[in-house]
Amino acid sequence: MKNNILKLGILMLGLFAILVVYLSYLQVIRGPSIAASPYNHRFQEYEAQVQRGTIYDARGTVLARTEFTDGKGKRVYPEGRNTAHLLGYISEMYGRAGLESAYDRYLLGREGADRIRNYVNKILDRQQSGGDMVLTLDAGLQELAVDLLGGRRGAVVLLDPRSGAVRAMATSPSFDPNKLDTIWNSLVADEDSPLLNRATQGAYPPGSTFKVVTAAGALAEKPDLAAKTFNCPGFIEVNGYKLMDTDAHGDVDLKKALAVSCNTTFAQLGVGLGPEGFERACKAFGLTQDPGLGLPARAGTMASVDKLHPAELASSAIGQGEVLVSPLQMALVAAAIANKGVIMRPYLVDNVKDSMGEVILQTAGRKWLTATTPQIAATIKEGMLEAVRYGTATAAAVSGTQVAGKTGSAQNPHGETHAWFIGFAPASQPTLAVAVIVENSGSGGAVAAPIASRLIAAATAKGY
Amino acid sequence: MASSAINKLAGSRATERNLLLLAAPYTLAGMLALYLGSQRAGYQSLILGPAAVAAFFLVHLYWKKVGYKGDSYLLPITAVLSATSLVVLYRLNPAYGMRQFIWILIGLGVLLLTSRLLVDFRFLGDYKYIYALAGLIALILPIFFGQEHGGAKSWLDFGLFQFQSSEFVKILVVLFLASFLTENKAVLSAGTRSLGWLSIPGPQEWVPLVAMWGVSLLLLVFQRDLGTALIYFGTFLAMVYVATARVSYVVFGLGLFTAGAAASYQLFGHVRSRVAIWLNPWPYADTAGYQLIQSYFAIGSGGVLGTSLGQGYPDFIPLVHSDFIFSAICEELGLLGGAAIIVLFMFYVFRGIKISMNTKDEFAALAASGFTALLGLQAFIIIAGVTGLLPLTGVTLPYVSYGGSSLVANFILMGLLLNISHEAAADL
């Protein structure tokens, strides 16, 4: 019987050991993400006691601060609708979102030395305070981007291709976060979805801007395509499916095909890539992944490999078909060409301090993906330069700065084409990469390229 | 001989004294931290700590004086668990802390009485059918006169205090099974007739067992006290296995359990909803899953070191002082505190198993392993429940949760374990 008792003992101790392992997993690994849930009332309790940290842009402009009136703290967003989707909100009724929610622990002084400091402050009945946060964003450029969208549905992303630092990320329509509690119901009911961050969550056909990806994929498979000449009669037939081009472009090389946005050439390249090659090209540019900005984002989608028959390939290669991506992802495509084929991970938070001003979190540029080789990037850059010089993107030109770009006019079931532009500047040493989309507004060259031009000019003037 | 040296040490109770000396600063530091850290904690918090320490030392000194040879480790383990209970409950609500303190004193008194009056526990083996009857009555009464607490209708209201009969019936269950299994062990182990490849005992041997199990289970289903049913059943299987070493009984039992679980899943909405919440609580975050989600938040906010005493918000969890006290510990004392509680229960189980193995008497060994399995299972089931490892079933965490019935019953259980070890040591 002793033996049986021993076995029972081992079984019971084993059960408890499992419990310890599970508790460690739950509390240490899963814990922080569970506790960050908007259902957790703890943050509202901290909110009532803690002077929440201030959020600044890269130049020291206040983007969010807490104002006390009659001992009750209220969060104020001086930039209002311009930064609503990035900063998010903290509402007792509608929960928490955006960077405010993601960095709650820092802003409320629950990290690093602040933990102990605020513990002591609480015991001694002194004011507890959180740390400040500095973004990479420039409030002036952000405001300009919002103004340039002019209330039309669309988005603008401007980032530094060398580091991934986001300088502007506008989405329209937006909302005033200072009035959230009174306008919430109308926001939810609005057909234009003002709560949606189009820059990261949008799902758009990329149109001809996608030809950059197709070109990189085709050159990776067959480097000699760079010197080849294609003939464009103004249409192409793939398996009985006739794809019309905007014009009969005649004999073009790859650079010129990019400059004049020749559908015939890129449809051929897409068919030549085949389903696997096409998928490889998309994945190389990270189009099927969440870039990890720290805000809700939609990973791009495309037709599955077994559905990529030649006709689908031809239209996917020119950014129609089933490829759906966000403006942030297309800005990163431009950044890849600008940065010699390497995509840096995009980020919005430059640093976070504790309540005494010590930096406790500092973001450094980190490589995300190698999208293509420096040679291929250089070839495509030539084509994008020609597009601005004499092709479809002449409206993107900026005096004094050489801009490289690619337009797109994406057909969609909702009316007029979406106007797209992606590009970078200055072409020799790029410090800015941009993506612009204005929904159902016409051609990329006429609508999106001028917005990029204004934005690049302003950013260059500010020294970015 | 090593074992006799250990027993000699146990006789002198020096180990018990040394370990209690370790438990004392733990208790005092906890109450002091509450006094310093919170405006709500009055001067009582400075009295409760020393008083609780003194009470445990008095029990120790009394045992030393009368030459009691019971195990030296259980009292210190219980002292640390009770101290944690006192500190955490006082932090949640000083009134709970005060009442729990009184219950700890009553529990220690009952423990002394058990070690004195029931020291010749063997006579307890003679009344098994009386236990069965008493247990049945105690379980039936709440169905007609009971109060409902947290979905379980297992409380009797005596005006001055409420009484959860199932906490005491569990001791009777173990005594009944120990006695019955000792008497019928040979027959149950060998079987008297064969059913093909399987030899089974005759109905006169197993019918009382299965009947007792079935009746208690049915009653618990009517009381909706799933946790207690699970504990009774697990203890039942553990004891049958210890007595007979027949895995087939365990397999048969688990089969019955699976059938019972499937049937109650089909029959009872509250069982279905428990399972659904366990699988994914988030859709029910504002409704039936609220309590579990709040428990998750508390545990998740704790991290490794915890928020420290008084700095968390465990009171967001409904019923945190009873079933969910472990989550409060995890939030404020962190993973280290939560794991420490689990390790204390491991020590407890280890001592219980040791006591069971050291006794030469079959009834005593069965009773000791039954008590150990009972207490260990109860701790496991509620900790696994509040952390989401198993579906939540409301039972108390022994010695830690708020509540007199549970505390007193568990002190009696501990007294009986100690008496068994006392007899084994005295025999040497």
Question: How many strands in all of chain A?
Answer: 21
The tally of structural domains of chain A comes to: 2
Q: In the CATH hierarchy, what is the superfamily of the largest domain in chain A?
A: DD-peptidase/beta-lactamase superfamily
| Widest β-sheet, arrangement of strands of chain A | 4-3-2-8-16-17
Task: Please give the share of residues in helix of chain B.
Answer: over 70%
Task: Kindly report how far apart the N and C termini of chain A lie.
Answer: 80 Å
**Helical element count of chain A?**
16
GO biological process, one term (chain A): cell wall organization
Pfam families (chain A): PBP_dimer_2 (PF21922), Transpeptidase (PF00905)
InterPro entries (chain A): Beta-lactam/transpept, Beta-lactam/transpept-like, PBPA_dimer, PCN-bd_Tpept
Domain Penicillin binding protein A dimerisation (chain A): 52-132
Give an account of the 3D structure.
The complex is a heterodimer of chains A (464) and B (428). Chain A has helices at 2-35, 42-49, 84-87, 98-102, 104-107, 113-123, 139-149, 180-189, 198-201, 211-221, 254-260, 263-284, 310-317, 327-338, 374-389, 444-461; strands at 50-51, 55-56, 62-69, 72-76, 89-91, 95-97, 128-129, 133-135, 154-159, 166-172, 229-232, 235-238, 241-244, 250-253, 342-344, 349-353, 359-362, 367-370, 404-412, 415-425, 432-438. Chain A has 464 residues and is α+β, with helices and mostly antiparallel strands. Chain A has two domains: 42-129, Penicillin-binding protein 2a (Domain 2) (Alpha-Beta Complex), CATH 3.90.1310; 140-178 and 203-461, DD-peptidase/beta-lactamase superfamily (Beta-lactamase), CATH 3.40.710.10. A six-stranded mixed sheet of chain A has the order 4-3-2-8-16-17, with no helix packed on it. In chain A, a hairpin with a 6-residue loop joins strand 20 and strand 21 (432-438). With 428 residues, chain B is mainly α. In chain B, helix 4 runs antiparallel to helix 13 (325-358) and helix 5 (94-117) runs parallel beside helix 15. Chain B is globular, with a radius of gyration of 22 Å. The A-B interface holds A 1-9, 12-13, 15-20, 22-24, 26-28, 30-35, 37, 39-42, 45, 119, 122-123 and B 36-37, 238, 241-243, 245, 285-286, 293, 296-297, 299-304, 308, 311-313, 316, 330, 334-335, 338-339, 342-343, 345-346, 349-350, 353, 356-357, 362, 365-366, 369, 372-373, 376-377, 379-380, 383-384, 387-389.
